[in-house]
Specification:
Blueprint (H helix, E strand, L loop, with lengths): L1 H7 L1 H26 L3 H7 L7 H34 L3 H4 L6 H33 L7 H19 L2 H10 L2 H21 L1 H4 L6 H7 L6 H5 L3 H15 L6
Helix pairs in contact: 2-4, 2-6, 4-6, 4-7, 4-8, 4-9, 4-11, 6-7, 6-13, 7-11, 8-9, 8-13
Length: about 250
């Protein structure tokens, strides 16, 4: 049922296009401007300004993905859970033979599958952007960078899990979106204020790893798994305790 809802959703189709095309086009545009010597763009790129070729493109796309994709995935998950309340369809779920916690977990499963599809498509678009910009031959290092881009997208999708719980608790999409924005701000502030500690924060580790693979070890990256597991369980409990009179 959740799979069919996702396929029929104009919201998910729109978000997919915005994430895939938007990130690839923006990354390509910034890369082209940097290669042309645009001082304003180079100043905004920070440490990436010293990179070139594929390293520059994948670095820029990783920066955009860490922030932009998290917000997009949070909006998608907020819609998936929140719409049941705003559209009034939540009452019908009480009559289904499938338990409400199972439905909640199904929503997370569909979100994960969709995230994987977006990750693969975005990596292909970034590859195409690099070929259009003529950034040079595609060697093993380039493939590794594209693989990191794909993994970053998946990890970012997992980090949006709190949005599903917030949307369920607040009975609408807006609380989930607000939670996503709060997570995004916290991750950015932590990465800037305490960069040495940020690698241990699940919401910051993926972006740091994508930009500096040696700066984040496997144990720190593995902490990301805690977020979807915890919030999938918490959301399932929330859905189990839902009442029609609230």
């Amino acid at each position: 049922m959740e799979y069919r809802k996702a396929l029929a959703s104009a919201v998910l189709r729109t978000i997919t296009i915005l994430v895939v095309a938007g990130i690839a086009v923006l990354a390509a545009t910034l890369t082209a401007a940097a290669r042309a010597g645009n001082d304003q763009i180079l100043a905004q790129l920070g440490p990436l300004a010293g990179h070139s070729g594929w390293n520059l493109l994948t670095g820029v796309s990783a920066q955009i993905t860490a922030a932009g994709a998290l917000l997009a995935f949070g909006v998608a998950l907020s819609w998936s859970f929140g719409r049941e309340f705003t559209d009034g369809t939540i009452t019908g779920l009480f009559a289904l033979p499938v338990t409400r916690p199972t439905i909640a977990l199904a929503k997370f499963a569909v979100h994960l599958a969709w995230t994987g599809l977006v990750a693969l498509t975005l990596a292909v678009f970034v590859l195409a952007a690099g070929l259009i910009l003529n950034l040079g031959p595609i060697d093993s290092d380039v493939w590794h960078q594209l693989a990191r881009q794909g993994m970053l997208t998946i990890l970012t999708g997992l980090l949006a899990a709190p949005a599903g719980w917030a949307a369920s608790l607040g009975r609408g999409s807006l609380p989930g979106i607000a939670a996503t924005i709060a997570i995004l701000i916290a991750a950015q502030v932590t990465a800037i204020a305490v960069p040495g500690t940020a690698a241990w924060l699940p919401f910051s580790a993926p972006a740091l790893w994508a930009l500096q693979p040696t700066a984040v070890h496997a144990g720190q990256l593995a902490t990301v798994a805690i977020v979807p597991i915890v919030f999938a369980v918490v959301t399932s409990v929330t859905w189990q305790r839902l009442q029609l009179d609230r």
